[in-house]
Amino acid sequence: MVTSVEKLPGNKVKIRFEADAEVFEQGLQKAYLKLRGRVQIHGFRKGKAPRRMIENMYGEAFFYDEALESLFPDAYEAAVKEHNLQVVDRPSVDVEQMEGGKPLIFTAEVFVYPEVQLGEYKGLKVAKEERPVTDEDVDQQVQAAREKVSRMLDIEEDPVEQGDVVTLDYAGSIDGVAFEGGTAEGQQLTIGSDRFIPGFEEQMVGMSVGGERDLNVAFPADYQAEELAGKDAVFHVKLHAIQRKELPDVDDDFVRDVSEFDTVDAYKADIRATLEADAAAQTKMAFENACVEAAVENATLDVPEPMVERRIDSMVRDFEMRLMYQGMNMEAFLQYSGQTVETLRERYQEQALANAKAEVVLDAIAKAEGIEPTEEDIDAEIQRYADTRKQSLEEIKKTLRESDNEYFADAAKVAKVLKLLTESAKVK
To answer: 166, 160 in Cβ contact below 8 A?
Structure first.
């Protein structure tokens, strides 16, 4: 089969196929053998009617489409390899000539990997922001650990304080008239959470269990219920219970309870080391992203739409998986949020396009610089993955499929390109 390629605008190519009449005849015979069992002709058992008899009854074109389908996959794959095409979408096929006894001629239009005109990518002037770890950062982590092992105490004598969890009844009225949704019993409220109307929680501070009080508040002007927006109201509240969180002291006993360390100093030092490692990783990633964005901005390329759509598909699938981990499905989320699949996909459009451009530019830089990952580079990527699974490199490598190996090889190549960009960059 003879093939030729014509470049089209928008990162498309048209592949023209011409199979001689003998090849087309082989396809027709193959189609006959496949379809004859579906045809019933009087005087012949089902599947035993001669090909010519079927063509006489149903027309010569009866086997054409099936013949083309049988010939196309191998012909298309061979053409892609022969012309070294990187296709990024399914082809659109159009028949120019399909007639028995004549050559079969058809074309396939398909999007291909975009060509890139690289601009400056070495010595890029890129800002780098480093955030030091402070004592306050460490204290926040300690406080979070205290919160996890805290306990709630019932308060009988002391009045309400900020942070207390109270159980109350309330009844709201405007000009002495109760309004819909303004009455409830046995409600729990954390004082200081700002869940209620401004001023409500603040005025409960100082109340004691069993006490009652009128709270004078004003609904915000932009309140969702228009009939209440901007109006003054009075809430009569009765306090039934107070609970207060008790946090453990930060001492060596606390440290031994929540960690593997024996002293506060050792515990805080470990927290600081972890935070500094995280901060360094975030700084490195942000700097790499900034270098890639600069290289992309300096390059000239046009990403075909299917590449972007494929990334959007992946981002939507990832989002759906996160919803499942949270006990929610996509349908429920869309209904709750008032979104549609289309609006969700639009939300990912910009990021998907940026990711596609970054991939293409990084690949072009790798080709321009002759960057290829070594076996050691690939093993390093696999080792990082193995560490997250708490398995050895050898254990992970035994489970890898061919597609997995390709993934790690690509990741190793990208890592080497990023190293080239960042090490040559001029930090602003």
So the answer is: yes
pLDDT band at 171 (very low <50, low <70, confident <90, very high): very high
Calculate the alpha carbon distances from 141 to 137, 255, 260, 271 in Å.
Answer: 7, 12, 15, 7
C-alpha to C-alpha distance for 313 and 280, rounded to whole angstroms: 32
Q: How many other C-beta atoms are found inside a 10 Å radius of the C-beta of residue 320?
A: 14
Which one-letter DSSP state was computed for residue 59?
A: -
Q: DSSP assignment of 65-129, as one string?
A: HHHHHHHHHHHHHHHHHHTT--B-S--EEEEEE--TTS-EEEEEEEEBPPP-B----SS-EE---
Pairwise CA distance, residues 415 & 410, whole Å: 9
- In this prediction the pTM is 0.71
Q: Give φ, ψ of 201 to 5 degrees.
A: -70, -40
pLDDT digits (tens, 9 = 90+) for 36-83: 888 888 888 888 888 888 888 888 889 999 999 999 999 999 999 999
Query: Which residue, among 298, 320, 321, has the nearest Cα to 123 in the 3D structure?
Result: 298
According to DSSP, the β-strands at 426-427 and 125-126 are parallel
User: Which is nearest to 358 in space by CA: 306, 298, 315, 408?
Assistant: 298
Alpha carbons 108 and 136: distance in angstroms, whole number: 63
H helical segments located in 210-340? 252-258, 264-298, 305-325, 330-337
For residues 378 and 410, the answer to whether their CB atoms sit within 8 Å is no
For residues 249 and 265, give the distance between their C-alpha atoms in angstroms, rounded to a whole number: 14
Cα separation, 186 vs 170, whole angstroms? 9
